[in-house]
Amino acid sequence: MPLVRLDLPQSLADQARPIADAVHTALVSAIGIPADDRFQVIALHAPEHLIIDAQYLGIPRSGRALIVQIYLRKGRSVELKKALYAAIAANLTALGLRAEDVLVSLSENDLPDWSFGLGLAQYC
C-alpha cells in the first residue's frame, strides 16, 4: 500500500520510468511489498523548483539529486527501513545515478488513513 512520490530534476526526464521501477523493486525486495501494489507519482522540476542542499550532512550532491517520498503503513523496524534505503540507493546507482544524490523520506500512517476508491476505507 505504499504511495511513492518521486521529485526529479528535469534532466532525469528520460530516466523517470526506470527510476520509478528501481524504487518499486526496492520496496518489493527490501520490505516485502507485493509486486502488484504500485502507486507512484512522478514530478519533474526545473532546477530552480527543486531545492536540495548541495552539502547537507557533508554529503556532496549534484544537480541531479532527487527526492523519494514514501507514504506507508507504520510498524516496520529500523533495520527494514535501513535495508530499504540501501536497496533504493543500490538500484538507482545501477542506473548511473549517484547514491549521494538520493534523498529518501518515509511518512508512516495507519490502516484508516487509506482509501483506494469508492469513498471507502478498504482496510477498516
In short:
With 124 residues, the protein is an alpha/beta fold.
Describe the structure.
With 124 residues, the chain is of the alpha/beta class. The chain has one domain: Macrophage Migration Inhibitory Factor (2-Layer Sandwich), CATH 3.30.429.10. Helices cover 26% and strands 23% of the residues. It is built from 2 helices and 4 strands. The chain has helices at residues 16-31, 78-93; strands at 3-9, 40-45, 66-73, 102-109. The chain has a 4-stranded mixed beta sheet with strand order 2-1-3-4, covered by helices on one side. Strand 3, helix 2 and strand 4 (102-109) form a beta-alpha-beta unit. Helix 1 runs antiparallel to helix 2 (78-93). The longest helix is centred in the first third of the chain and has 16 residues, at 16-31.
